[in-house]
Design brief:
By secondary structure, the protein is mainly alpha-helical. It has a domain of 37 residues. It contains 3 helices and no strands. The longest helix is centred in the last third of the chain and has 26 residues. It is flat, with a radius of gyration of 26 Å.
Length: 112
């Protein structure tokens, strides 16, 4: 019986082979370059638009290929307002952890 690693390598090889066959048939290919994504929002959220191969196989049950278009990225500073609650929550978790640890240490002396 093959080990987990050998089995994973077999699955990976089969997946690569399947992808090569799909590319050879013309089902998948590189996405066309665009200057800006259509429907981009002010916040610059990532957009992914599904596209299909434009040949006769696209309607004959061939799998639809979803390609990533240009992705607008947000700067690190833009996340500061959105995640302002995180430091407060981390302090609260650290405080609860400290109290529980102290309680366990005290109980270890008492329970003996």
């Amino acid at each position: 019986m093959p080990s987990g690693r050998e089995l994973a390598q077999r699955y990976a090889a089969a997946s690569r082979k399947k992808k090569r066959r799909a590319v050879a048939r013309g089902v998948a290919g590189p996405a066309p370059a665009e200057s800006a994504p259509s429907g981009a929002t002010e916040l610059g959220e990532a957009l992914v638009e599904p596209t299909m191969a434009r040949d006769s196989r696209a309607t004959s049950g061939a799998p639809r290929v979803q390609r990533n278009r240009a992705i607008a990225r947000r700067a690190f500073a833009d996340y500061r307002e959105e995640y302002a609650y995180v430091p407060k929550d981390l302090r609260r978790v650290a405080l609860v952890f400290g109290i529980l640890l102290l309680a366990l240490i005290i109980l270890s002396f008492i329970v003996r």
